[in-house]
Amino acid sequence: MTNQTQSRHIDNVMSVAMHGTAANGANELIHNSWRRCVNDYGLDPARPKAPHIVTSATLRAHQEQIEEFMQVARVGMEQMYKRVSGLGYVLLLTDAQGVTVDYIGNDARAPDLKKAGLYLGAEWSERSAGTCGVGTCVAEQTALTCHRDDHFDPTHIPLTCSAAPLFDPEGKFLAVLDLSALTSPTYKESQHLALHLTMMYAEMIEDANFLRHFQDRWILRLGTAWALVEVSGEIMLAYDDDGVVVGANTGARRLFGRAAGDVVGQPLTALFDLAPDDLLRLARAGTMGERSIVTRGSNQMFYASVKAPRPRPAARGSVVVEAADSAAPAHHPELDCLAGDDNTMRRLLDQAKRLLNRKLNILIHGETGTGKEVIAKALHRSSERAHKPFVAVNCGAIPESLIESELFGYTAGAFTGGRAKGMKGLILQSDGGTLFLDEIGDMPLHLQTRLLRVLSEQEVLPLGADKPVPVDLTVIAASHRDLRNLIGAGSFREDLYYRLCGATLHLPALRDRADKRYLIEKVLAEEAELLGMDAHLSLDAMHAMLCFAWPGNIRQLRNVLRFALAVSDGRTITAADLPQELTEQFSVLPAAPAVPAIASGGEDCEAAPLLDALVRHKWSVTKVSEELNLARATVYRYMKKYGIVPPNQR
Ligand SMILES: Nc1ncnc2c1ncn2[C@@H]1O[C@H](COP(=O)(O)OP(=O)(O)OP(=O)(O)O)[C@@H](O)[C@H]1O
């Protein structure tokens, strides 16, 4: 590859990222990724990066997170690799963060593949590697080919990568399957089959994982070809003994055009033109012979086959969920204000709005500090139950010996040390409102059993009482741990899990959100108001905050801003006011502000020093970036933000 090819590529990427136009015909998915790389991640195509290979301990930690899934995926990968082994491809499996957790390639080429990052442990997120098959698939959660100069980094131009997303049985994005080659023909069309093969195996792996996950459930398989439906249903729904759906594969989610959470919990009779008797017949017959099954509403016809559950010792509870309509969600300010322009969050909030007033238990997953309690409260306040109590319980923070009496309450004299009049437990205190059970994974097993009973019977038996008390209970449970792993380890009841997850909301980590600026400004405004201040962030402080990885998520963001407000001059927070961990991430950001902000005024004033430097250096971005100690991409980004256009482009 010539230097000229590389500089043309760099110009093209920057032109798209800054002005939205491209010299070549690369597609919108790729353009959006280039914009993210430059504008959100501060990457510069003129500064190529060597592949980042994580340490073996980190790799192990990533592998452990999806160990069971990897076993299923490995079988599919080996089959797929047999079909492409002579063609110079390597096969990567990455996790949802883009870290390569499994790999099959030609050992003879291992040194070259390792050099190019097509290897175990390589991190292919956009943030680390720029636009690439895996990273862009992680960001967009859709299949794509990233071919040659679609890549962001000019050193990746020889590569071609076709990637497809893999989702878990609840529709949560889990991994990426990627087929890559070190060299390829010029035309992107040459990778058409590679992409289709990758998508096909991704679905096969997903379905194998689905069948493993729901081996104790009935599985309804649907296909458009009778001969194939028994071996590979395109659409699969797992359901319980009552005919209520407990899981839907990607094909089924596509068919019903809804989030998995909406299909899950619906009776099959609501989704298909079936009478309850048909379900019984289905269960007994195993297959439906030549009989067809028709979807309600859209009237699509499929052939059906049924797989019986693995024999099991006891019947399980079922989730009863009211049907959800798919009408556009209404405006709910409490929920709407929780996110800015981030697709994952907007989708999540739309889903949350559809769940309102549906007498449905909700499970919220997310790292610590991502706002699980905040969204639980917003759901409560937006619901018809808003005037009733919202009772929050942190199951991890109450000593095990006290959880039972705290939750279920006790009667007078129930035990020594109790209050003389007895105590109304937290469950009864939440009657008619919402009980928020934080860190539900920490609830001891015997209390899980009692909670399950309360949920199914809607009555509580306080300690020492001889008669149960009716309760109108709606639970929102939250956990930062994957409850299915706890089920596997025997510390969480599967039936309680299904009772709780009428719908599951996965809150993204702050580092993965595209609306960081919105959240920073929102939390700053909230904190400043508490102190009666009117403060804003200087350019360099905002830059440091946008680039920080935020392991403690929004809670850490709030703490950092609280700290910065306390040490700042009360009007402008500069990088020097931020805790050290935020500024030491950049060698380019000195303790003193790189772009001095003018204290009184907003962002317009911050543009002045930049404009001044550009004029003095006759619009040379390179010289300005050196003077201000900022990456070139950052200078371009600020120019775009403040609408500074060089004279030759006006
Ligand atoms: N959308 C948001 N806007 C403003 N602040 C938020 C938002 N989401 C969360 N926060 C703030 O982040 C902090 C943590 O929120 P919250 O307690 O809801 O997180 P969590 O996920 O429940 O944490 P944990 O898992 O540790 O219990 C709180 O200070 C909250 O005010």
From TrEMBL:
Pfam families: AAA_lid_14, HTH_8, PAS, Sigma54_activat. It comes from the Bacteria. Keywords: ATP-binding, DNA-binding, Nucleotide-binding, Transcription, Transcription regulation. GO terms for biological process: regulation of DNA-templated transcription. Residues 228-297 form the PAS domain. SMART domains: AAA. One of its GO terms (molecular function) is ATP binding. Residues 338-566 form the Sigma-54 factor interaction domain. CDD domains: AAA, PAS. SUPFAM superfamilies: GAF domain-like (SSF55781), Homeodomain-like (SSF46689), P-loop containing nucleoside triphosphate hydrolases (SSF52540), PYP-like sensor domain (PAS domain) (SSF55785). This is GAF domain-containing protein. It comes from Massilia cellulosiltytica.
